[in-house]
Amino acid sequence: MTWFLLVPVALAAGTAVSMQFGVNSQLRAVAGGPVAAAAISFIVGTTALVVLTLALNGGLPSFGDVAGAPWWVWTGGLLGAFYVFASVVLTPRLGAATTVAFILTGQVLASIAIDHFGLFRVAAQEATPPRLLGALLIVAGVFLVQRF
């Protein structure tokens, strides 16, 4: 896909994350707590992804095919579970905008480090001064969102 088609998908994903924070924080109230809400969210998401995989691939992948993968590729689900759990706990306390702002800051700072060092087999991209300035501006934006 070309860049101009990927940007709207990225923006839609960002919108979905913000919506997910609000929806899951309300789910928490009826599910009996943040862990139950995160679990329900993952069950619904897993079901949707299984259906999509079946529709697009005609079947599920063989776990034997991925068994030889590096150990750290299996942590994605744990990282996602932490992310959803944290959003369920933080959103009612901090508000959606502040929660998203702090999470975005963490994402940008970690992403720059991942790119710079080529972690997780991502193609290395130097942490140039303009990229670091962009991260600093996001941190400044977080301060403004949180304070005003």
Q: Number of helical segments?
A: 6
How would you classify the helix and strand content by structural class? mainly alpha
- Ends: how far apart? 39 Å
Strand residue percentage: under 5%
Could you estimate the helical fraction of the residues in percent? over 70%
- Say what oligomer this is: single chain
Q: What is the mean pLDDT?
A: 89
- Counting DSSP E segments of at least 2 residues, the number of strands comes to 0
Work out the count of structural domains: 1
Along the chain, the helix and strand elements come as HHHHHH
Protein name: EamA-like transporter family protein
Pfam families: DMT_YdcZ
Transmembrane segments: 34-57, 69-90, 96-117, 129-146
Keywords: Membrane, Transmembrane, Transmembrane helix
Describe the structure.
The chain is built from six helices and no strands. By secondary structure, it is mostly helical. The protein has one domain (3-147). Helix 1 crosses helix 2, helix 1 crosses helix 4 (76-94) and helix 4 (76-94) packs antiparallel against helix 5. The mean pLDDT is 89.
Write the layout of secondary structure elements.
Blueprint: H1 3-31, H2 34-57, H3 63-66, H4 76-94, H5 96-117, H6 129-147
The gist of it:
This protein is mainly α and 148 residues long. The protein has helices at residues 3-31, 34-57, 63-66, 76-94, 96-117, 129-147. The chain is built from 6 helices and no strands.
